[in-house]
Amino acid sequence: MDKRRNTFDALPENRREAIANAALETFGRNDYKSASTEAIARRAGISKGLLFFYFKNKKELYLSLMEHLTDKVARIVVDDAFYEIDDFFDLLIYAAESKGKVLGAFPHLLEFSVRAFYPEHKDIRDAMNSWMQSQIEPMFALYFKNVRFDRFRDDVDPRHVLDMLIWLADGYLHQQRALRRPLDMDDMIAEMRCWCEMLKTYAYKEEYR
User: From 51's CA, which of 27, 76, 83, 96 has a CA 20 to 30 Å away?
Assistant: First the structure.
């Protein structure tokens, strides 16, 4: 994979973005099984053979796309203002609102993100679940490094509070999917504000609530 990935990474940026955007649209419009690598190649303006020169198979392409998009969104969201925020909950709201703007600016990114969060196909299910779990600890260490954790009560673990917010978001998404409702980022961010206020009352020392 490394040799193929290195070959892909060495491409001019416009070529890499063309392939990534073609894959995003195809995986966003379709579930993993139905997503056609031939359609991805056609949208990217390359042959299917060349696509598989860069990526061994569809699974490798999908996982590489996930990493590419995660890095791309992080570069946009984590701006200069991000690290100036020292409040745990304010930082989460800022990141959510920034991600909402990114999702609105890139067609198919929201659909792809939801499908990736709930991987159903056996080829990617275990790999995606494992990858997502592996991201939490390093992201917590990196993105919350300037947060004032002294505002938390002594008996409250900030990492556990983050887990609670992830569980709430997961429940929200499950409910929307079960009811077959389109995902509304503005509504989800509004809900997240309520969750943050609720957890802030529980987690912070009285003088910081």
Answer: 76
